[in-house]
Amino acid sequence: MSWPCLRLGWVDYDEGYYARGNLYLRDLADLGTLLTSPGPGYQFQPTTYLSHALDYALFGDSLVWFHAVNVLLYALCCALVARLGQALLVDWGWGRGRAARAGFLAGLAFAVHPAHVECYAWLGDRKDLLACAFGLGSYAVYRRLPGVASSRRRLLGQLLAGLLLWAALGAKLSAAPLGGCLALEGLLRAQGGWAARLRAALRWSAPALILGLTFSLVWYLLQLRYPVPLARPGMGHGPLERGLYVLRSYGHYVRLLGWPLDLAVHYYPRPRAPEVLSNLLWLVAGVVGTALAARRAALRSLVLWAAGWFAMGLVLVANVVPLGYVNDRYLILPSAGVAVAFGGWVARGGRTRWAGALLLVAAWAALSGAQIPVWTSARSLWTQVLRVDPRHPFALGKLGLLDLAEGRIDDAERRAELARAEAPDADFPVLLQAEVLDARGRRAEAEALLLAQAESSHEITPLLHLGNRALSWGDIAEADGFARRALEQAPRSLEALRLGAECALRLGEPRRALQLCRRGLEIAAPPGLTLVAARSAVASGAWELAARYVALYERSRPDWESQLLGAQVSFAAGDPQVLARRLDACVEQVPRDLPVAVSELVGLLERSGRGEQALHVLREADPLPADLRLARAHFEAILGDPVAARDDLDAALEANPGLRQRAAADPALKDWVR
Question: Bridge-partner residues for 327, per DSSP?
Fold first, then answer.
């Protein structure tokens, strides 16, 4: 069912945080950095980063392989759910035949449920698949240890289970409640009074609880060092908002588990009254359904365990995620327990229940198959979200940006207005409106809109947008001011560090630029920041760093900028073979309509004794500013074309008389200047 995912692509939905936007992933030589840095998403997920690094090391940029790994991991999760259901029910006294049927149905229901499509169809969600697979594997090992007689085997089992649990937690912290789930199972399986049950539950689950708490503490301490770059606390961070988010998660997922009719990528800045009421009703329905199922003694322990598994998983999600997002992918590990309970409930029924369950599974499979093509591209994804929720503000903003990139300004403006009406406090509708105003040539209005948003926003995004606009229009000092403000509020923002370094470099402060870049590269290596770091190192004369950053940048794909920087590094290092190769690539690739790049290339060609190639580049350059025209006159004079040299010299001095002194100092031109 999931193999059609192999034909899917990138959808530009946070994949850069995990799979694309970190050049450290492209070489296992940076394994130590991957295991100790938070990455572009400011989340410590070393298992996830290691997984993507192995993808790149084995198969490069192959999209098919990325998707194949996701599908194989999901198949492993389904097999582990089936095995867990069978083992759990056998231990609770069910016959092996009935337990096997229940486990099979649990794995089948888990496999075809539409709520899990996001996990294996979207390339950015390797983390949830890894957390689920390693977490279920750890749980399966832990629950077998009490029956192991050999102390040596028990010790090896503890080490294996601990390693699997740490791998799961390293993929995503959503695996932390597994220790609590073990404690709940131990409590339900133990005999005697409550005190004896609690002692047995703690003995059963103590190692997993200790590991989970230790990793969670380390994770939170690291997050304090590398916080998400917000300017100041915003909506959704207080106790009330977080409590409403817990309610939103429960209500939404209780409904989604029962009959998932939509793709759940929901964003609401504040919980709304109708939504709160609806979620309360779905929560009540879930509680009532659990109570009714638990009335049967044969199902009571199973149902209570599954409800606890589901509840603990979603409470942790609600505590970790600080914003009001609700996504299908958060459900994969919490729903494993529900799938086991579903399999057990059906296995205890007659033919009618089996027939109904199989029809439901078939319907889920059809819904999943229909949802897979949604993840083909960014437009298909957000168009589907709008089909479910026509006024979804985040989807409106994403589609508005796509419309703007395709030149459909009117459509983008309409979507921006709708998104702002739905989410008046959010940044992305305002940024889209500013882009629309810029596209219509109303620059002053766009700037006023962004300045107002920057004063009220709890994020630094408007400041970064203002800085990038100013930089693109050549207002370097103004852009530097916005970058400094952003860095005051979020000192470790990768985008703010890149903007600040770019401004410092253009203001003639390469050492400040290099310092900012190095601060960012401690976190991750986005291509834009890495390129600015290489340019800063070259401008500072730090050739070893420059060589390292150029090599790092070229892990994605060498381009004319990296070739030009690499040529400067090779010239400084005195490596003629590499210099010759890079200069040939520069002559072929450097755009002739970028005077700054042409000037750098011509200067490097001259210092390398390649005057004919420099003249060839200058004759192709368009536009040709006065200083480059003067350079062309120089090469024409020394290469034996005096008529063209005189014409270019006259044109250069007419366009910029201030070049006369520079021309008079040129031995090839000084006689003509006089």
Answer: 265
The rounded distance, in Å, linking the Cα atoms of 469 and 475 is 9
HSE (side-chain half, CA atoms, 13 Å) at 607: 14
DSSP string, 444-495: HHHHHHHHHHHHH-SBSHHHHHHHHHHHHTT-HHHHHHHHHHHHHH-TT-HH
> CB–CB of 610/598 below 8 Å?
no
The answer to whether residue 265 scores a pLDDT higher than 60 is: no
CA pair distance 92, 99, nearest whole angstrom: 10
- Place 386 in a pLDDT band, splitting at 50, 70 and 90: confident
Dihedral sign for Cα atoms in the order 463, 468, 469, 473? positive
Residue 257: predicted pLDDT: 67
Separation of alpha carbons 495 and 512, rounded Å: 16
pLDDT at 447 over 60: yes
Given the structure tokens 């994969």, which residue do they identify?
332
The per-residue DSSP string of 387-455 comes to HH-TT-HHHHHHHHHHHHHTT-HHHHHHHHHHHHHH-TT-SHHHHHHHHHHHHTT-HHHHHHHHHHHHH
Mean pLDDT, rounded, of the chain: 87
Query: Does 258 map to a domain?
Result: yes
pLDDT number for residue 326? 64
Here the tokens at position 174 are 């959503």
Radius of gyration of the chain (CA): 30
Is residue 133 assigned to a domain?
Answer: yes
Count how many domains the chain has: 1
pLDDT at 232: 39
Span 502-550, pLDDT tens digits = 999 999 999 999 999 999 999 999 999 999 999 999 999 999 999 999 9
In a domain, 8, yes or no: yes
Q: The whole model's pTM is what? A: 0.89
- Has residue 401 got a pLDDT over 70? yes
Is 350 domain-assigned?
yes
Task: Return d(Cα 538, Cα 480) in angstroms, integer.
Answer: 21
Give me the domain span that covers residue 356. 3-224+237-375
Quickly count helices (H) and strands (E) in the chain.
34, 2
User: What's the rounded Cα separation, in Å, for the pair 545 and 101?
Assistant: 61
Rounded CA gap, 652 and 640, in Å? 19
